[in-house]
Amino acid sequence: MKIRFVIAIAAAAISWALPAAGAPEEYRVRALSLLPTPPAEVHLHDAGGKGTAGVVHPKSFLNHEYELLKTKGGAVVLTTKADPGSVKVDGDVVGECELPAKAGSYILLMLPEDGSETKSKVVVVDSSAKAFPPGSFKVINTTTVPVKIELEGKPFEFAAGETKLIEKAPMGENQTAGMKASFERDGKWTTISSGVWPAPGDKRVLQILIESGANKRIELRGIRDVAKP
Q1: Staple 92 to which of 58, 79, 170, 186, CB 3.0 to 4.6 Å?
Q2: 11-52 pLDDT, tens digit each
Q3: Using CA atoms, how far apart are residues 229 and 224, in angstroms rounded to an integer?
């Protein structure tokens, strides 16, 4: 009888410690904007307009400051209003994305939506230590074409829409790597840019490929993340 009582107490303690199935969890989020004029704050709501996850304040850089969202994950809509019903008002909507079901540390990357001054393309980036370890480059190819990045002559290839790590990148003198980026369109390779990438050291670096304009111009943008994962 005593053993059964102890087991019952232990089971109750475990169930109390675990989150209820389907209950909202806390997501650590940083909003990174590459928009020409980002909104001061953005509210994240359930796509159905039945609830809100919280608010984020987009920045043009990455530091240690993050904001907490309480959500179950899934489809969310970003708007300029605190009212969840704003998801149904086109003029209030900034963008939309799919949050992973598992809570964790994420970057909401807000990119210009081609042909719109108010809408953005939102990319969710896993910024956990496992998915984005210190000392690495995380390349996010948001374009519709294959891209190749050469570091010290070593090629790294990225399919259209692919996100991939470059770990232990080859380095030359002074812990820098000669870099050349190019893309393939209609069977022809065209240079995007060339230069030098400093080693990340114990930090992390996002390298983001963007496609914009009527001529589908490709641009490479680097953002250093000084936060510890």
Answers
A1: 79
A2: 444 333 434 446 789 999 999 999 988 899 999 999 999 899
A3: 13
Residue 72 CB-density burial (10 A; 0-12 exposed, 13-18 middle, 19+ buried): middle
Euclidean distance between CA atoms 156 and 13, whole angstroms: 50
What DSSP element (H or E) covers 13? helix 2-17
| Ordered structural domains, the chain, with CATH | 21-128 (2.60.40), 129-229 (2.60.40)
Query: CA angle at residue 33 from 27 to 39, to 5 degrees?
Result: 95
Residue of 73, 59, 65 whose CA lies nearest to 24: 73
| Residue at 4: amino acid letter | R
Kindly state the helix (H) or strand (E) to which residue 8 belongs, with its residue range. helix 2-17
**CA of residue 125 relative to chain centroid, distance:** 3
Q: Which residue has the tokens 């030098």?
A: 196
What gap in Å lies between CA 67 and CA 171, rounded to an integer?
A: 35
Least Cα distance to 31 among 60, 51, 54, 52 occurs for 60
Query: For the sheet containing 74-79, what is the strand order?
Result: 52-56, 42-46, 74-79, 93-99
Q: What residue has token string 């996010």?
A: 140
pLDDT in tens, 173-188: 899 999 999 999 999 9
CB 52 within 8 A of CB 46: yes
